[in-house]
Amino acid sequence: MDVEELFLGDRKLTLLPIVASVMASFLSAVGILGTASEAYKFGVQFILLVGGYLIAFPVAAYVYMPVFYKLRLNSAHEYLQMRFGKPVRWIASLIFILQMTVYIALALYAPALAFSQVSGLPIWVSILSTGTVATFYTAIGGIRAVVWVDLFQLIILIGGFCIITVLITLKIGGLKPLWDKVLEGQRVQSFDFSFDPFKRHTFWTLIFGGSGLVLSIFGANQTQIQRYMACRDLKTARRAILLNIPLTSVFLAFQLFTGLAMYAYFSGCDPVKSGLIKNYDQILPYAVMVLFDGVVLVRGVFLSVIFAAALSTVSSGVNSLANVTLEDIIRPLYIHWKSVDISEKWKYRVALYLGFIFGISTVGLAFIFALSSSHILQISFALFGAIGGPILTVFTAGILFPCINAKGGICALISSFVCGLWLSIGATFSYSSDNISYLPLSVSNCSSNILQNASSSVNAAGAKWSFYSLSYLYYSLACLIVGISLGFLVSAFSGFNSRSPVNPRLLAWQARAVYRHLPSCFPSQTASDEVTYKNRISPDTCIHHQLSNPYEDGMSVKTVDGKKHSSGEGDVISVGQSIPN
Fold first, then answer.
1. In this structure, are residues 135 and 349 in contact, taking their beta carbons and an 8 Å threshold?
2. What DSSP line would sit under 338-378, residue for residue?
3. What percent of the chain has pLDDT over 70?
4. Which candidate, 99, 64, 95, 101, places its Cα nearest to that of 79?
5. CA-to-CA distance for 15 and 21, rounded, in angstroms?
6. Which domains does the chain have, with CATH numbers?
7. pTM value?
């Protein structure tokens, strides 16, 4: 097995495992526990995130992904070197490594809480077992093992979650009493159409802010782009993205329905206000523990769901981290020092070692989360949320804005990263549960023994306004606006790309089509010639060849020997071949 097969499955993977892997990669236990508690506390308005899916997934499928796929990249960050130079590639790679390391550790820590509550075993048992299993099969089996195990885990996850939801519904008497209690508790409310960006969730924040968040994951994250690159053709990659719209939407609805079912069961005796659990992220495992006390089979199904979500996230993340570290950090540095590429044998060995190193590192970080206060955990979540936006920003600047040059690109990346950190860290330190207004929660039906431990009300009498109360769903868009604006200004003061026009293959075809109609007084920002990359060692080395039509997808191009070849959607770049448009 060589490195390309380890990380990309020799670019021959089919639709079914890729669809499952794309969906499962970010269906973490963090999301499963958090979405159910979201419906419990705030109702079903979160379902509007489906509107964000309808925007983000097609944009990822038709704008971002084709650019990466046709370049036949091993790492998405190679594109950044081709477009903006080595510094941008290295900075983005380091940001991604930070992002995924923290996220994987959180994905290990969240199911450990559920495991400990349901089984009574220590948290470290869950962290160690999950991290060890995922690291081993990821490091040894590569992307093929990851995507096929993702498919198996997704079946367990969806099937098990549906079983748990149905059983909880039956336990509380069926749909009729559930629906009555949900309506009484105002969990099915009308949508909030306020334009106030400082409200946590409104119609606009969930659709437009949510689309930015989803696009940063499915359009600009190496973990997902690596799966697109592993597809056997462009059409398969596009279908894999688009099929996730109905799949993720239906699963989101199931998660929210489970939260409503838990509210119906606990209505009148809220577990957090009554002191039975510490926070609402524990409410799903607590409900399983209470409703199915002594029913080992159901508890086992629930744990299988949580662990399936955790394993998928860990395996996908570790594989991507190893890929990025090898292709974007180690290999370029080795070539710079030795003036020769690493042999395939040693690349494979280094990839294996990196898989184990990142697996061990994330397990260790998960232990730190388990020992730390909740405040540090909140900061870690905030740091993760701040990083997706800057990476989306720099890819957007490269793919859609031909006038942004190398100086503008590095400015866009750094400024958006600073913006994201400022917003998220400020929100973390100014956070107070008093600033969040939950829907009605009551302890009126609790027994006297439980009421002795009841806490004071968690409902806010009135939310205190703060600049840092900007909806977290807008963070990606805020980073995007700041980064693109400053990147454009810096590029304007440094002459745009007039002296070094951009290779058209590094742009989305939509951007090329729009740019063609700009006023002729604006200097040309794209090359009139097509480009072929000589080798994989120096991706910014190029030879020019004439395009037959530089603006429309699927047109013929001239190769070195002068012969024309049709370039359909599935065409890709290979060594010594001109890049199809």
1. no
2. HSSPPPHHHHHHHHHHHHHHHHHHHHHHHHHHHHS-HHHHH
3. 77
4. 64
5. 10
6. 3-455+464-489 (1.20.1730.10), 501-565 (no CATH)
7. 0.80
